[in-house]
């Protein structure tokens, strides 16, 4: 029951009306019998500073942050957890003793999805990541931290991938971090896993982002996109009987980690997963 003690959580971004996070987090609060509510707030970039002051003034207990505010919110926070600082993006804010503290659960969320859904541990594996934006930064950092043997980045904006490799090398001088200056045109046989961290595949007529000849029988193919659940990349990989994973697992586990930061309790993962699946089915 919503009453005078109800704690408020939410999501800030622009746009946010497509978000599945309210369904996932509210289901978790209900199941754990926590008197809390999670709402989606559409915040224009020019209102971000006011929105975060408002969070503090109103005592909103926690927020998720999505596009386009993940990097932009950092100057308005009181503290940023070291990992989020290195990644340069925050997707979770906790209000603690009057201070706004920023975290990033995206990368760890992806790793947990990889481990729990595909039963793959990053240690010793070689990853090729398409895209070098916020999500690729978070995932790249966490893959190296977890002992990946190599992470190579490709982005159409070459400087983005270049900067990401430079930034990560500062923190992981012994890791094999590489820049691909063009899309691979032959088999990715030196790689175990291909990750699409670009928005290519979200739109109805998007092409297959990479040439068919790069796929080899042992390649694991992940797409961070969850809507549609099967992008052309995942459809093609499935047709070749490769192991695949869409972005729903990452969405779930980044949410699980945010929820645990806010509540200090173990998240009801199954409840959250079911809520997400139900919300997706409703969207179809
Ligand atoms: P972003 O910051 O915009 O990064 C995407 C990067 O990909 C940009 O640098 C973009 O370059 C580049 N790019 C676009 N088309 C490309 C192509 N054909 N080849 C290579 N690079 C290309 O976005 P993001 O926040 O990292 O998100 C990336 C994707 O992950 C989105 O689809 C997002 O929905 C998804 N995501 C999913 C989750 C989840 O929980 N499942 C969480 C976060 C993000 P330009 O900027 O020059 O276009």
Question: Could you walk me through the main structural features you see in this protein, from its secondary elements to its overall organization?
Answer:
- The protein has 284 residues and is α/β, with parallel strands linked by helices.
- The two termini are 30 Å apart.
- β8, α6 and β9 (176-179) form a beta-alpha-beta unit.
- Helices cover 37% and strands 19% of the residues.
- The radius of gyration is 19 Å and the shape is globular.
- The chain binds NADP nicotinamide-adenine-dinucleotide phosphate.
- NADP nicotinamide-adenine-dinucleotide phosphate (NAP) binds next to α5 and α8.
- NADP nicotinamide-adenine-dinucleotide phosphate binds at residues 67, 106, 130-136, 154-157, 160, 197-200, 202, 209, 224-226, 247, 250-251, 254.
What is this entry, summarized?
The protein has 284 residues and is of the alpha/beta class.
Protein traits:
284 residues, alpha/beta, Rossmann fold, 2 domains, binds NADP nicotinamide-adenine-dinucleotide phosphate
Percent range for β-strand residues: 15-25%
Outline, from the CA principal axes?
globular
Small molecules in complex: NADP nicotinamide-adenine-dinucleotide phosphate
**How many individual helices?**
9
Tell me the CATH architecture of the largest domain: 3-Layer(aba) Sandwich
By DSSP, the count of extended strands is 12
Unreliable stretches covering 5 or more consecutive residues: none
CATH class categorisation of the largest domain: Alpha Beta
What is the structural class?
Answer: alpha/beta
Compute the gyration radius: what is it? Answer: 19 Å
Could you tell me the mean pLDDT?
Answer: 97
């Amino acid at each position: 029951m919503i009453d005078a003690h109800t704690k408020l959580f939410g999501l800030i971004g622009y746009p946010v009306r497509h978000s599945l996070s309210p369904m996932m987090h509210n289901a978790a609060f209900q199941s754990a019998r926590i008197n809390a509510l999670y709402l989606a707030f559409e915040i224009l970039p020019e209102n971000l500073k006011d929105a975060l002051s408002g969070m503090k003034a109103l005592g909103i207990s926690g927020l998720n942050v999505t596009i386009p505010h993940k990097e932009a919110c950092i100057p308005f926070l009181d503290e940023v957890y070291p990992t989020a600082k290195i990644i340069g993006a925050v997707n979770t804010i906790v209000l603690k003793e009057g201070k706004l503290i920023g975290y990033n659960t995206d990368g760890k969320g992806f790793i947990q999805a990889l481990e729990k859904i595909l039963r793959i541990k990053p240690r010793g594996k070689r990853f090729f990541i398409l895209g070098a934006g916020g999500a690729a930064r978070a995932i790249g950092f966490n893959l190296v931290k977890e002992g990946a043997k190599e992470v190579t980045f490709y982005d159409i904006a070459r400087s983005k991938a270049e900067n990401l490799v430079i930034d990560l090398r500062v923190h992981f001088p012994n890791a094999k971090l590489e820049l691909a200056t063009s899309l691979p045109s032959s088999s990715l046989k030196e790689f175990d896993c291909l990750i699409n961290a670009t928005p290519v595949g979200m739109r109805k007529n998007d092409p297959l982002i990479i040439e068919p000849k790069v796929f080899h029988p042992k390649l694991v193919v992940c797409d961070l996109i969850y809507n549609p659940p099967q992008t052309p990349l995942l459809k093609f990989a499935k047709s070749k009987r490769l192991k695949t994973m869409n972005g729903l697992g990452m969405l779930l586990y980044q949410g699980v980690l945010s929820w645990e930061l806010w509540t200090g309790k173990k998240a009801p993962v199954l409840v959250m997963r079911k809520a997400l699946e139900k919300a997706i089915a409703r969207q179809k």
